[in-house]
Specification:
- It comes from Actinophytocola gossypii.
- Pfam families: Polysacc_deac_1.
- This is Polysaccharide deacetylase family protein.
- It is found in: Secreted.
- The structure is a single chain.
- The protein has eight helices and 14 strands.
- The chain is α/β, with parallel strands linked by helices and 344 residues long.
- It has a single domain, classed as Alpha-Beta Barrel (TIM Barrel), CATH 3.20.20.
- The strands form five sheets. Strands 1, 4, 5, 6, 7 and 12 form a six-stranded parallel sheet that branches. It has a two-stranded parallel ribbon with strand order 2-3. The protein has a two-stranded parallel ribbon with strand order 8-11.
- The longest helix has 17 residues.
- The N terminus is likely disordered.
Amino acid sequence: MRGSCSTVEDVPSRILVPLAALLALSSCAAQGGTPQPAPAPASSSPPPTTSGSAPPDPAEVGANELGSVPVLMYHRIVAKPESVYDRTPDGFRAELERLAEEGYVPVTAGRFAAGDLDVPAGAHPVVLTFDDADPSQFALTEAGEPKPGTAVSIMQEVAERHPEFRPVATFFVNADPFGDPGGRRTLPWLLEHGMEIGNHTATHANLGESTPDQVRREIVELDRLVREVGGEPSTLALPFGIQPEPPELALHGEGYRYRGAFLVGANPSPSPYSAEFEPSGIPRIRSQSGTGPEAEVCSTVWLDKLAASPSLRYVSDGVPDRISFPRASTETVAPGLRERARPY
């Protein structure tokens, strides 16, 4: 849907509060404070451990599983962008190449919200999300292959060049996704190839202006569509980034129970292990180059900030059932996860 998301001015300021320290840190050098290191070259990132090898000591890879995670938000992938929500195929490919070279490994929104981050030691999780199920994200040829130039096709190309970069993403869909009635052809292909199908409501309704019964109907109707083709939706992308009242209605109601609801947002998300993590309002970053309207909160700028301040981003210890982080960290582990905490 066109015009489906709000601008930064429409995003509640409280969404930015959990990472206010990041904004302050990034502006420190410009105001004469302590200079921040330049972005490290890709080769400086600790190499992820290979499958089957023993994970290194957390200190060896600088593990910080309370660090921030970029959840990137995409809409259309088109040759001639018409808004800040559009990316060109070349721009999208370049961003994926950068993520791969800097040691990011994609995980689905559902696994992220559940805290199921099986990422190699030294690597950083990233969540790739697509709203509105536009055909530029995914379409099939007559032969049943991803159409060249679509987001899925480009993801596969990048993964072929970077084996550690999993070609997985979460597609938040509405009714008749990708111009495919009921998603009968497209959704099964995505599911069979490791993608996740999330809920974006049946009609892209403004849940903040909907009654509780309307909210439930919007979510349940789309939930049923996905389940009819074999999916098991566990996350919701809030249309326009607007939460219902109460916000928890985005996560559970009669006929559905979800792990996370995603905002439009303008900053990285706290780690799902952090006490600051709020499942009913997970922030996302709009994918955009470093120029143009509202570029100060776009993906290019945030990836630059995280590269310049590596201590702020999530770094995996390679062991899914423990949470490693430096003792000096100012972040705190969520109360229900403290038994897994392993400060070093």
